[in-house]
Amino acid sequence: MSFLLLTAILLLGSEVSAFFPDCVNGPLNNNTVCDTSASPLSRATALISLFTIAEKINNTGSTSPGVPRLGLPPYQWWQEALHGVASSPGVNFSGSGDYSYATSFPQPILMGAAFDDALITDVATIVSTEARAFNNANRTGLDFWTPNINPFKDPRWGRGQETPGEDAFHLSSYVHALIDGLQGGYDPKYKRIVATCKHFAGYDLETWNGNFRYQFDAQMQTQDMVEYYMPPFQSCARDSNVGAFMCSYNAVNGVPTCADPYLLQNILREHWGWTNEQQWVVSDCDAIQNIYLPHEWASSREQAVAAALNAGTDINCGTYYQNHLPAAFDQGLFNESTLDRALIRQYSSLIRLGYFDPPESQPYRQYNFTDVNTPEAQQLAYKAAVEGITLLKNDGLLPLSLSSVSSIALIGDWANATQQMQGNYYGQPPYLHSPLYAAQQLNVTVNYAQGIGGQGDPTTNNWLPVWKAAEASDFIIFAGGIDNSVESEGNDRISIAWTGAQLDMIGQLALYGKPMIVLQMGGGQIDSSPLVNNPNISALLWGGYPGQDGGVALFDIITGKVAPAGRLPITQYPASYIHEVPMTDMALRPGPNNPGRTYKWYNGTAVFEFGSGLHYTNFTAQIKSSIQQSYNISTLLAKCNASNEKYMDRCSFLPSALEVAISNIGSVSSDYVTLLFLTGSFGPAPYPKKSLVAYQRLFSISPQSIGTANLNLTLGSLARVDEQGNKVLYPGDYALMVDIQPMVMVNFTLVGEPAVLDEWPQPPTNRKGSGVEGLEGYFVGGYGSDVAQETMS
Amino acid sequence: MSFLLLTAILLLGSEVSAFFPDCVNGPLNNNTVCDTSASPLSRATALISLFTIAEKINNTGSTSPGVPRLGLPPYQWWQEALHGVASSPGVNFSGSGDYSYATSFPQPILMGAAFDDALITDVATIVSTEARAFNNANRTGLDFWTPNINPFKDPRWGRGQETPGEDAFHLSSYVHALIDGLQGGYDPKYKRIVATCKHFAGYDLETWNGNFRYQFDAQMQTQDMVEYYMPPFQSCARDSNVGAFMCSYNAVNGVPTCADPYLLQNILREHWGWTNEQQWVVSDCDAIQNIYLPHEWASSREQAVAAALNAGTDINCGTYYQNHLPAAFDQGLFNESTLDRALIRQYSSLIRLGYFDPPESQPYRQYNFTDVNTPEAQQLAYKAAVEGITLLKNDGLLPLSLSSVSSIALIGDWANATQQMQGNYYGQPPYLHSPLYAAQQLNVTVNYAQGIGGQGDPTTNNWLPVWKAAEASDFIIFAGGIDNSVESEGNDRISIAWTGAQLDMIGQLALYGKPMIVLQMGGGQIDSSPLVNNPNISALLWGGYPGQDGGVALFDIITGKVAPAGRLPITQYPASYIHEVPMTDMALRPGPNNPGRTYKWYNGTAVFEFGSGLHYTNFTAQIKSSIQQSYNISTLLAKCNASNEKYMDRCSFLPSALEVAISNIGSVSSDYVTLLFLTGSFGPAPYPKKSLVAYQRLFSISPQSIGTANLNLTLGSLARVDEQGNKVLYPGDYALMVDIQPMVMVNFTLVGEPAVLDEWPQPPTNRKGSGVEGLEGYFVGGYGSDVAQETMS
């Protein structure tokens, strides 16, 4: 690559580059890429046939210079939109006025707690709408590196907040709904935007005890991989036709994921049928550089880039491809056709986004700032927060009758939270309604004191205003917990207990004997058992990162304007849990130095288990569908084969959805999240304690009324994964239960021979790297000085 | 305590409060405290005899309100001055003009590398001079919470940079020199300032694998404690008459240090004779709160404050004493005389600082801003950096002949370091001369590129300017390493390797084949073996945190204006070391999961061992003193007994200092640090590989000239510590060696019976806490609501 071109890349890196190619008057106007009647594949192929090899390599990075001589504009691939259009290299908020903000929804961990797939689709549709509006103003690209769909396995993980929770089934369902909204259906003519499922795979550790993400090798059994780490990605690729994947920093079983053909080719593309020409894989940022250092998996920089390209990593976030593919090509480490494959995927994707098509024929190209943060979007951001907020303890104080309250003490480092409410990967919000703001809208005196100077503040120097506020109030709300100062990208948590300072302050506040609520904020859970056990603390709410209207959502729940119905999407472990299992241990089942992970396998007693969440009313449940005592496996399979379903695990178990009637027997109208768990003894021991197999949120069930959940139950959700990773339907005793304290239960058996629903591609026997024997020799050899000159001058 | 008084504390907390009491016209003018002819003890006793119990308790915190009715002004105890007067609650820099800056010396880790005790005294004298000037302008108090003298045991420790290194003997000698300069001698009539030795004891962990400093219990053997963790503190207390100690956040063997009478009374005060009435102990900030939570050592808040006060913690950094001593007093948990003891220590200390004395009789009260950052101080800051910078590799390129260079590429995130050069605990410096600044003073073209966006930046996006700079230059300097983003208070390191991104960039730069130097910056060491092994990297310098003139110091060494003579004050371990030993393991000797710690015990091969440091010339050594083949232990002790030395371990071994002649046999004038090590087989096995027993820096030894080191060798430095902690002189074979690759060696034996030089006070057999059985009950009981009312209303 020439020095001039590299310079071009650099210069473009800092600019927004969402110009569209001119297919009317530009140099490409006679190329097939501009022919809307041609197939995307032939259009992309025609385009890149015009590229020189240097031009091809130049366009393998996240900051693509395009090809000026062809009128192909530069393109920035790196946009973020985790819970709203977010600040990132390709997103450019204006300083004021139009396009100075976008709707900021709650973090996924709180939206996961809503257990409401329709909500997720709605949120994602707003995000993609706003993204298109920004794109039309030349303020963003068309692909977004969201969602983060790694299961939140270890409570320490700093990025767990970015995920919907710990359960693989839940994540699979959530992400299916999300991609629908982001991309605009599962096979639209024009995609709204391209979503990117990340980080494939096994990425859930930032930094722990000398391990860090750029270098970590996640050692996992095939059974755990298929049962836990893969399902959300299978949902993305096989079931939701997502446009892009991101490979991760870590290695899996010895191979950095971006260089692993087993993951990227055998599983992702072949086994999951993710073979459309417009589907591409991008590396996490400079994960390809990491293949060389610090992974030391490749023996040279050229080996690293060639291994990644050959494995199927089509775009390099960073410049490593652009820097080192030339020498790798000279060394014959990859074929030009492999490079072409990567570029065809990229441009096919842009073609599917209408990049080369007349704007007037595309509805999304008509969006503008009037489509951003509409009243509907604002209402949805509020609704998402309300639906997720989870009531963990209530001695009857809540809902709070405002007529009985004249003054509220609002205390803690979340009391006046604004940006804190966004968590990470955020954009510019239209507003941030803090808890303090919300309290001040009520007709009561609010006595506010921050007290705690932040997570890292163990001192008592600012405690005096706390006592003054408490003294002056007839009601106390403590809003604390954790935030991005202790859980974030690059930073895993070192404690899952409340800090001593916060716990001491809460304890002293409780001594006043006044009615008191604690808001436990942040993404990861904190062991709240001291609060549960304190009789002077009346109520405990978990609020996650509730987004732009978070304070209002919290206070509307507190005052009973809305009834809570969120459920914990993760286990709240005792504080000692993190001393019982290394963060590096990828096993789900209990074993030496591992008490088991997630609600399925943890063999201790959770403080609050997955699915916990109280209401302001009471419910009973009844299963309305008839369930046979016994089912024959071969009969089930025969029915499945007779259907049009391509994948047996997606076939329905019952003739129609399982109907569960939920009766509100209390006095408050309320949503209810129907959680259907499966338990029993079937398949390979040990057995999980239970497994979530279906869920549905029911809305506003009035007192003395009934809501009905229609739960689709697939053969796959009855199946177990064997040690080879095959998904198998086993004979045995099964039970279905509604809710975590089962309100109703039904038993049945499967009889007959085990049947494989999905045969897993086995990993290659030798998964070693190309090998670097220590670092001693790595600087010399394998990179001739003439090549260096060619690359660098 | 009344609410009003607490309010007063709060209001004063944000103000500077260094007013002096008015002994001429104020209410105290007839009190003995104003009688300069009375003893400090009687003066302090007279003062506090006027206090009510509430007034006494009010003045137990770091922010003391004084007693307005007595004309006793408020006083802020919390000032910092780690390597210059530093920003802290009691230090108030002005925005511009006078008092807007103070001299900023290198971090102690680099000053430790100078191995020059006289330098340390000089630096400390400047610091105390500037502190007094600021105090006279009412911009700081008179006591400073420095030095941090915990040995830098684990390479991960984020605050290791604040210490002079890993060797207990070195630290003891260094701190003795430091206190001389800070306090103005060891028993002056008026102290310049009060120094505070911290953190007593066993504090060298911030956060590691679920352990954090507020909660960590450092389990250590008595032998390790006495041999390694205690000597610097013994030097402070017994040998240097330091004015103050700080107890630490952690516990030692089950007891939080601030509540431990064994540490604070039996060892510190009784065994070390630290019993002057003006010597006080302050808690680390809210370490007393931590005794309750998160240590859970005390069963109530009142138990926590009473335990600390009774143990001998005289000042509470924070407000916990002020908040909870009233209730503890009502519960009869301490006597008023114990409170008086704490206050007498505080005010005696202020009396010794001339706080109550006429200013005209005190020279330090005459200092003003003309005494701040004088040319001499600037020169000393430069000298301290130059003396510490350590040459680790040199293939002959250095010193760099500027006549052969027309252009230099200066690359890396330290290349334009400014505030980075100060490390932590810094103030406002007069200037910060970066490496880039220094390079630009030379008559060469400087091509600068930052390249790496910081420690957390794994991306290659800014690498292009790096190649351009390298391409355009005939000489390459890479300035990188670590900084406060990865080592700091609260943050231990998770890797002691170079980041993959930096290592890759260095490697690619080396491929140019141009002359290349790497500057390894930061306090903790980084495994530089890949650089050592790369033949294209000509030289490697370690520059620590070099302070306000750090860039100039580095370039003066590079260009040969000054010859390097610094020595590593810590071991540079291989990157794998941190996987071999938990950070929580306090043992020095090798054992299971512990390859041994420090150069004395590490059983692997260091990348660079303690004491490493090259020169631009060559030296030989000769021992001039005559050493007998054999010494009789009883004879040595008899001589010692005949001397006036109170402590046998301080008695000299030889009749006079050991004379070592150092010959410069090369062609460059250079300093030389004489390091005298002891080895042999004597005392309890296992034996350390060697032990530093004396050192002296010699200055500017001309080519073909000889410098002479006069090394005092004490009986204590020949002794070993047994398992009970006794310091014993043992019969056996001894050898003295000069330098780490011994240039000369001499053997001798000790004969006779072992003799105890220092009998260690044994720990109490039961060191359990007052006990909290889990957290369940901690909120209720032990704190009656009437007491709460008294405290809080």
- What proportion strand of chain A? 15-25%
**Most residues in contact: chain pair:** A-B, 75 and 75 residues
Structural class of chain A: alpha/beta
Computed Rg of chain A = 27 Å
Oligomeric composition of the shown chains: homodimer
| Helix-residue proportion of chain A | 25-40%
**Main beta sheet strand tally, sense and closure of chain A:** 6 strands, mixed
Number of strands of chain A: 27
Low-confidence stretches of chain A: 1-18, 769-793
Sheet with most strands: strand arrangement of chain A: 11-16-15-14-12-13
* Residue-averaged pLDDT of chain A: 93
Shape of chain A: globular
What is the tally of helical segments of chain A? 23
Euclidean distance between termini CA atoms of chain A? 9 Å
Structure, described:
- The structure is a homodimer.
- Chain A is an alpha/beta fold.
- Chain A is about 30% helix and about 15% strand.
- Chain A contains 23 helices and 27 strands.
- In chain A, the strands form 8 sheets. In chain A, strands 11-16-15-14-12-13 form a 6-stranded mixed β-sheet. In chain A, strands 18-26-25-20-21 form a 5-stranded mixed β-sheet. Chain A has a 3-stranded parallel β-sheet with strand order 3-7-10.
- In chain A, helix 5 runs antiparallel to helix 14 and helix 14 crosses helix 19.
- The N terminus and C terminus of chain A are likely disordered.
